[in-house]
Amino acid sequence: MFEQLLKILKEHDNFIILRHIEPDCDALGSQLGLKALLNDNFPTKKVLVGGKLPTELSFIGQMDQLQEKDFKDAVVLITDTATTGRIDLENEKWLTTAKLVVKIDHHPNLDQYGDVMVVDASYPATCELLTDFITTTNLKLSPTAAHLLFLGLVTDTERFLYRSVSERTFAMAYHLTKAKFDLSAAYDEIYAINPNLARLKGYILSNFTLTPEGLAYIKITKELLKEFKAQNPHQIALWVNILGDIKGAKIWMMFVESKDYIRIEFRSRYFAVNKIASKFNGGGHQVAAGAKVYDWASVELVIQEATTLLK
Q1: What's the whole-model pTM score?
Q2: Where is the DHHA1 domain (predicted)?
Q3: How many CA atoms within 13 Å lie on the side-chain side of 183?
């Protein structure tokens, strides 16, 4: 798997790196970390990155303005994106002109798209998979690349708390820190928030629901986001693990209303929440998944499904 990817990186000169819509740090860290890796080891190669960049994650790096002509004869590397419908690209037809499409991912491989698939769901983060690729192939790792990959690794494991974290995960984190990037600054970039958002976190902890079955959840409306001056509902949805610290919570969910739909983030300690997500326009890992619905009545159906799973 890694040998094939290395061969592709060595043999081709024109790359475009994409990732999923509404990106998190694993998507952006793997995308921009892979770009940095290519720049460090193969400086003569052309590397472009694309997709919409949330304002609050702009500290990670910048995107290029891709055009259809860029895809002709390019190798397209798509990181951290389980399905084709989630690829952040203006026009999916542009992929048809690419020389090669390579899927690099850690989600269950249900949508087997691409000419080459570098996919392994045993990794809790795509950034860990890429770090293992680097260590296995002895590629040069710069502080910049290590910093980017660490952002994805630490966030997708929720600071190494998930059950999917293994001895390998810590070994990969150690390898990244050996590159001597500023670890304290990395944590500040991810976790430091402005006072308004801190107050929103306080609201969540004061207003969540915990059922007798062990389901913890909170509903965040557009009006509530406006009250706390929270501009990105997708960022707020990723706070779901605030509820994971509640004693007695076996499954925890965040419902956050955006302009077009209600985003749902599921987490659990042991229960297969991806089974619920798959029924509501979503999917993911067994204990970490996402979905979306279009009205609050559907949210009640999600709550019913989760309650049934817990019984």
Answers
A1: 0.90
A2: 232-310
A3: 11
